[in-house]
Amino acid sequence: MKLKTSCDELAVMGGSPAFSDTLHVGRPNIGDRSEFLERVNGILDRRWLTNNGICVQEFERRLEALLGVKHCIAMCNATVALEITIRALGMTGEVIVPSFTFVATPHSLQWQQITPVFCDIDPETHSIDPRRVESLITPRTTGIIGVHLWGKPCKIEALAEIAGRRNLRLLFDAAHAFGCSHNGRMIGSFGDAEVFSFHATKFFNTFEGGAVATNDDDLAARIRLMKNFGFAGYDNVVYIGTNGKMSEISAAMGLTSLDHLEEIITINRRNYAAYASGLANVQGIRLVPYEGADRYNYQYVVLEVDEQAAGIHRDMLLQALHAENIMARRYFYPGCHRMEPYRSYFPNAGMLLPETERLAERVLSLPTGTAVSEEDIVDICSIIRLVLKNGVEVTNALANGKNT
């Protein structure tokens, strides 16, 4: 693609889109197709499609070894995994969570008539601010859910100290953090339990799926019962339960993805470095950093857009990128507290969440993964720089409805 050099060449100004095919955030990574199909043929030959089959068993063993945990229970998806784990932990009443997260986090509580109490975030880490947690604890509080946003651990030790001192359960939503570590220890082994997402849009996927990791033997036993209707053996139901099982076909995809985990992370890291180089010293935007010696999966390339310094609002930049078929995303807009049913339940929550409100207006996630090349990223960065350079013109064109 010939790099665009003038404002008139931008698609929002009447030019042609930079990309004929759309570039997405989280387009699925496939791994090796032949390896996957070989596993599928084995599943079909065995005619064992679900109910703790050979692939699920192997998948769980490999996850336990990778994460360094005693138990890893594969699930049909991360939302059901959260719901089951919350119930298995005995959470009731109120649980403190960030609003700056995917809506599945509070939904997994509200679905069970547990009140999510929204806590503001640290503007530097984008994760729940432990300094604000203490003031939200009431006699009805039974737990805290921290979210490892962007694959970066939240303040684990600070949250663990509060939970331990106040006798609260501590669960981590690690949907973004598979393959990451904290102080040399893999995410998955902290708190009472941690929940991973293996949804198709995650860098590591099982088509649809999730898992619960824990070192608590009793908790793991309850979760295993609850994910399979409470069956403890043939015709022997001993506990309340639901259907949270992972299928063999999903586990086969997970095993194939595990075989190529480091390869995918290497591509993500390469892409992140390309963005960091292409957007270095651009006024008004900040690329969320990955720092230190810990492992990261680099599955999210996240910008903060400062409207005053950049000369354009994040949403105008988003529209300009969409016009070029660069399908950047606003994560997590507008904040869970502004979605139903929470905006009706807590109409004044925004006043208590100033950092969440501020960040929800600034964050932009850019395409990455195996479907995006370094050349694509050079072009994306060039377009971002051109849009910011002509922020007033682009804003005026969009405000006046040009090419929309």
Automatic annotation (TrEMBL):
The active site is at 202 (proton acceptor). CDD domains: AHBA_syn. The modification N6-(pyridoxal phosphate)lysine is found at residue 202. Gene3D superfamilies: Aspartate Aminotransferase, domain 1 (3.90.1150.10), Type I PLP-dependent aspartate aminotransferase-like (Major domain) (3.40.640.10). GO terms for biological process: polysaccharide biosynthetic process. Pfam families: DegT_DnrJ_EryC1. PANTHER family: PROTEIN RV3402C, TRANSAMINASE. This is dTDP-4-dehydro-6-deoxyglucose aminotransferase.
